[in-house]
Amino acid sequence: MNRLDEIIAMHLADEGALLPILHDVQAEFGYISEEAIVAIALAMNLSRAEVYGVVSFYHDFRSTPDARPVIQLCRAEACQARGVEALLASLPVQNHVRLEAVYCLGLCSVGPNAMVNGTLHARLDGDKFHALVEASL
Amino acid sequence: MTVVRISDDALAVACGADAVAAAFAQAGCTVERVSSWGMHWLEPLVEIDGYGFGPLAPDDVPDVLAGSSAKAIGVIADHPFIAGQQRITFTRAGRTRPLSLEDYAANGGWLGLERARKIGALTTLAEVTASGLRGRGGAGFPAGIKWQTVANAPAVQKYIVCNADEGDSATFADRMVMEGDPFMLIEGMAIAALAVGSTRGYVYIRSEYPHAISRMKAAVTACAHVVAPFAVHVRTGAGAYVCGEETALLNSIEGKRGEVRAKPPLPALEGLFGKPTVVNNVLTLAAVPWILAHGAKAYADVGYGRSRGTMPIQLAGNVKYGGLYEIGFGVTLGDLVNRIGGGTASGRPIKAVQVGGPLGAYHPSSDFDLPFDYESFADAGGLIGHAGITIFDDCTDMSAQARFAMQFCAAESCGKCTPCRIGSTRGVELVDRIRHRIPRAPDGVEVLPQMHNARKQPRTVHEDITLLKDLCETMKLGSLCALGGFTPYPVLSALRHWPEDFGLDGTESNAAQEVDHGV
Ligand SMILES: Cc1cc2nc3c(=O)[nH]c(=O)nc-3n(C[C@H](O)[C@H](O)[C@H](O)COP(=O)(O)O)c2cc1C
Ligand code: SF4
Ligand code: FES
């Protein structure tokens, strides 16, 4: 069995299996391909449109590959109040990382904050933020 | 050997707690990783024999062990930030190891569930109702009434769903419960299950909280034998703010797009997979074990007006002493912001305070005497929501904040209804036109001579403001859920209190004042 089928089989018996499957597929392949959508639809007795509709609804799911490293930077109000927009403006244009806006990481008293591969970074200033971008390249 | 206690909550770790813990271990200490006290400006905070030191870096370790650290804060429990609180939900915060069943049982854990099992479903329901506990997710709906509805609904399968989507900026109390005291939440869910007759529960946690997700999964496994036959499953969100809305959340667990459902049917009658379902916020469920263990009256004795019990209030943004402050309802906003929060971190004057997350109003200092409770804030044209408070200093441009509110609504709208889906985008454009003084000019068709009724002049700022007010009114009245319905709160409060930030002079700001009666 290939990895995709394994992931599907692992969750298929669960109630509401679609989101867990999509999370695992994205974690494994970095995005949710056309091929994956077809396979999931077939296994779950859904139409491809239904699966695609779910993929496109959620900000977390991508339907195109992007191999660049991701930095999730919180740009919600409490981090705005602590200067995240100025921090972002201080960064030279960066095409080698995907800088993704997230709305709150739950560390709102110690912002600006970012998450890289599940690791959290708080109290970012210009130097720390630039170092984070450099380090993820 | 010296026992050093350091939090392993996500915030402490983000501030460098792991490196500090490693440095103490290196120095020969026994390190215990506990929950966070909630004094975030002091993280990483270290406790040795009750005495606190923070915020520490690994370099500080020798001084701490030599007793000469300049970062000593004295006995933690006596610190004014802790001593001033009424900790019910966070009674164990800072004191226990989150995944230790021993620590939990030794500090009052499971007493609520034991009592619920003894007194039975009916009396448990009566206790929760009598405690006056209201939903902490924002709407403040009485938990007892919701549970009663589910209990009365006949069904083979019923569900307990814990809403841990905590999407509001400035909120982290749910995260702290899940990371710091996960068994308490599971105990609360188990009591709810017992009261309504359910055997299956879900905790829906946002994907932005990977620490909370893994902690909850571990906790669910560790205490499965205690809560059986009730079984809990952890589900991960996928980055949609609107999935915090209860019906969107149910759709999401079912594996669908997170679109809001029209009510009726109430989720209490037709919820998850069409079955009767209790949907409650983390803090609502987490308060239940204490209520059962100590009795409804002890809980109801604390509070203000119709808001009973305590609220874990979250001080965030540009605040000097940020963190979690649990206290009975009724404390004033000014007390929270100035006395407890210590004003801004930047040291500049406070300009605005947003209460209740992205859908909450911006309050000027003239609102500082408002008591913190559901009704008082509603009467003042605001809301307390999930009790997140964001402080902004005088460098803030409030028209930018108004624009952000509309932009956030546009990005997060589920798309079900037009005022929210389209109105928010039009709102961004309108705020931009007002801010930049670029009134809308007639377009190519409108200027044609045969378009007799089309106006030929550009709109004035006055008209744009009236239009923004109209748009907000439409969003408020025509939206299915609070995302579209409450976005006008931050927008109109910013315009009302800080017209100068929209570049409005005397006469124009009069037009803005009229907005006063809008929301
Ligand atoms: C757009 C939107 C987002 C919401 N987000 C949350 C949330 O993150 N957490 C939460 O508990 N309730 C949230 N709610 C409120 C829920 O719909 C619901 O009222 C709540 O989960 C009920 O639980 P409670 O009675 O314990 O508060 C949100 C509502 C709306 C309209
Ligand atoms: S108000 Fe917005 S988020 Fe709520 S149901 Fe309507 S479109 Fe969806
Ligand atoms: S607002 Fe940035 S972490 Fe919450």
SSE string of chain A, helix = H, strand = E?
HHHHEHHEEEH
CATH class of the largest domain in chain A: Alpha Beta
- What's the number of structural domains of chain A? 2
Helical percentage of chain A: 40-55%
| Count of DSSP-assigned helices of chain B | 23
Tally of helical segments of chain A: 7
CATH classification class of the largest domain in chain B: Alpha Beta
Account of the 3D structure:
The complex is a heterodimer of chains A (137) and B (519). Chain A is an alpha+beta fold and 137 residues long. Chain A is built from 7 helices and 4 strands, in the order ααααβααβββα. Chain A has 2 domains: 3-57, no CATH class; 70-136, Glutaredoxin, CATH 3.40.30.10. Chain A is 47% helix and 12% strand. In chain A, strands 2-1-3-4 form a 4-stranded mixed beta sheet, with no helix packed on it. Chain A is elongated and about 50 Å long. The mean pLDDT of chain A is 95. With 519 residues, chain B is α/β, with parallel strands linked by helices. Helix content of chain B is 42%, strand content 14%. Chain B has helices at residues 10-14, 17-26, 61-66, 80-83, 101-106, 111-130, 143-152, 173-180, 182-196, 210-222, 224-227, 246-253, 282-294, 296-300, 333-340, 374-379, 398-412, 418-421, 423-436, 461-478, 482-486, 488-497, 506-514, and strands at 3-7, 30-34, 46-48, 51-53, 72-75, 159-164, 200-205, 231-236, 277-281, 303-304, 307-308, 310-317, 323-328, 350-355, 362-363, 388-393. A 5-stranded mixed beta sheet of chain B has the order 2-1-3-4-5, covered by helices on one side. In chain B, strands 13-12-16-14-15 form a 5-stranded mixed beta sheet. Chain B has a 4-stranded parallel beta sheet with strand order 8-7-6-9, sandwiched between helices. Chain B is globular. The relative contact order of chain B is 0.10. Bound molecules: flavin mononucleotide, iron/sulfur cluster and FE2/S2 (inorganic) cluster (FES).
